[in-house]
């Protein structure tokens, strides 16, 4: 079955993790639209339990669109502003569960709740109690039933097999669609049978892009491929393997990166270097890796496997730390300094979004590697990237780009705008070759969208 992969030429998603709605709106206008991002993925917008940690957003208490990130009116205005800037909006939708605190209380927007009691939404009969492991928690990922019917870290697990629950969930998603939302990242998808997701999707008022979070686990009974009939699926092996190639193996091995590595079919895969969970859990490259992180993102944005998401973080020194917030834990406006990392604005990353757009549909050609950490490839006739992650500069050599002759902006080191380049210019000769020196741990990228 065909997945509803992002269509059109602007496929890149920016995950503006925990940004508030006014900040997302202004970023759509000032950066995401102009740089060519196709989508923004926002953090969960529904009412959640109160407190400081970022992960409170993953504990819904009602489906009111009112959270530390803003009001319903601000959310609506953000969607409209992003659309006007040519950027579509994907919502992180938490539909497997409600809150996890054993004690109830009052949610962010004032709704009272208890564990398994959410007035107006769900009562105790709407939740699973798997009767295992003492507290209903998932322990054994080798047991399909347990993964889908027990509780993920004590979070009240919805009976997604029930028509009532499905209708409530579809009601929430349809409300978001009525606000103009374009798609959903379905949180904790592995913890819901694919058929339950299909049934919920079947109740939606119109079509929407869907990407499901199903973390691959070797040998587990629930596999990401089960979910491709519903839409895209996150390929978690991608970021881990990419980190390993950069950290301890060889970039040369990337020449067949993708399906040949046992991954999901490219048309169903959603990929990222890191996301908000993996950047905390380790084993991937993150903003802390600086230049190496930029190079990994450049590779992802140039390489035609899956649909890429660029992470945009707030900096953190402990796992639970929430985003910059006021005394009431209301999220502050994003500044891109003092606490906000804004990787999606880094020159290399932001400029490679336009490379991705300009090279859609072009196959990989002219692969080169030195057997180790220096690689190069073109996207036939549209663009060329070479990464030198050796500890030494590579000088005095030429590269066969196979591009039309002319002068191109090296978008790794310069910005292209209004027909001019703020950095070095690469000249491709009439045979498709160019000469360049590449520093250690550096890259050069050119594409037909940034031709002088
Ligand atoms: C996800 N995908 O499947 C999210 O990407 C991930 O960030 C969510 O976990 C998880 N599923 C549930 O939506 C996050 C934090 C957890 C946090 C949970 C609920 O990574 O650490 O659990 O959200 O807020 C926290 C505590 C747990 C506690 C639980 C319930 O860490 O110890 O049991 O809250 O109170
Ligand atoms: Ca479940």
Automatic annotation (TrEMBL):
Residues 11-356 form the Glycosyl hydrolase family 13 catalytic domain. Residues 365-451 form the Alpha-amylase C-terminal domain. It comes from the Bacteria. It holds the Pfam family Alpha-amylase_C. It is an enzyme of class 3 (hydrolase). Its EC number is 3.2.1.1. InterPro entries: A-amylase/branching_C, A-amylase_C, Alpha_amylase, GH, GH13_cat_dom, Glyco_hydro_b. It catalyses: Endohydrolysis of (1->4)-alpha-D-glucosidic linkages in polysaccharides containing three or more (1->4)-alpha-linked D-glucose units. Keywords: Calcium, Carbohydrate metabolism, Glycosidase, Hydrolase, Metal-binding, Signal. Its cofactor is Ca(2+). Belongs to the glycosyl hydrolase 13 family. This is Alpha-amylase. It comes from Micromonospora sicca.
